[in-house]
Specification:
The chain is an alpha/beta fold. 36% of the residues lie in helices and 27% in strands. It is built from ten helices and ten strands.
Length: 250
């Protein structure tokens, strides 16, 4: 069952076309890994899914992006409601300059939740889903900036989960992490797909192979190939995909 559908999507930054005639379907409760060289349109596409590109000057888009059958670019679409449904975790951890607890409850409080018992439950559940609860449960008042880089990234995952999204976008979430921290983030992603639809942009083909249900290869703004992960990494149909996966691309 498709959760996200893009149809003939084109995206420009001023005169530069970053995504070209892209049509793709992303299934509910799957992890779609997106790989490809730099400037291939991966992150632009990801940011189209929560309309974060709207904040860029001179950005424009053509085509359709549907979530649960509704076009998120339709006239009158509620962008704030969209971003509640579609959370995002960036390449570099960006904890707020406050305590671990306050990082998690920041979003729920903005939505009007104020009861301490309710907020406590959100904090515990979100940190458990991000595989961080056992490491921080006794120091929730500690400044988030004192956490390790890997812990900060999992805190950002928990913060995204606190507002109960349906989709989580990961933009190279392990780019600055050590192997142990990367493994914990990947473990969290694999568990999260039971409840959420996940789109993962990664420059690490091995990461895409480990966690993705399907993989899409982007090149120069175009979708070259999309396939189940096992087939993509053993028998890619396009020589450009094979070259990229083998490290011989270019």
């Amino acid at each position: 069952m498709s959760k996200i559908v893009a149809r003939e999507l084109n995206a420009w930054y001023d005169k530069k076309c970053a995504v070209k005639s892209l049509s793709i379907e992303i299934n509910k409760n799957e992890i779609l890994g997106i790989i490809g060289p730099a400037n291939s349109g991966k992150t632009t596409f990801l940011r189209c899914l929560n309309r974060l590109n709207d904040l860029e000057p001179h950005f424009r888009i053509e085509g359709n992006v549907l979530i649960d059958g509704r076009d998120i670019y339709a006239k009158g679409a509620d962008v704030d409601a969209l971003r509640k449904r579609v959370g995002m975790v960036f390449a570099l951890p960006l904890p707020l300059p406050m305590s671990i607890y306050e990082n998690i409850v920041y979003g729920p409080r903005r939505q009007g939740i104020s009861a301490r018992q309710k907020l406590d439950g959100i904090v515990e559940n979100s940190l458990k889903e991000a595989y961080l609860w056992d490491e921080v449960k006794d120091r929730l008042d500690m400044p988030a900036m004192k956490l390790s880089g890997g812990q900060q990234q999992r805190l950002c995952i928990a913060r995204a989960l606190a507002v109960e999204p349906e989709i989580i976008l990961f933009d190279e979430p392990s780019s600055g992490l050590d192997p142990i921290s990367t493994a914990k983030v990947e473990e969290a992603m694999l568990k999260l797909k039971e409840k959420y639809t996940i789109v993962l942009v990664t420059n690490h083909t091995k990461q895409a192979a480990r966690v993705s249900d399907r993989v899409a290869f982007f090149l120069m703004g175009e979708l070259v190939e999309i396939a189940p992960t096992a087939r993509m990494f053993t028998n890619p149909r396009d020589p450009r995909t094979e070259g990229y996966i083998s490290g011989k691309f270019g």
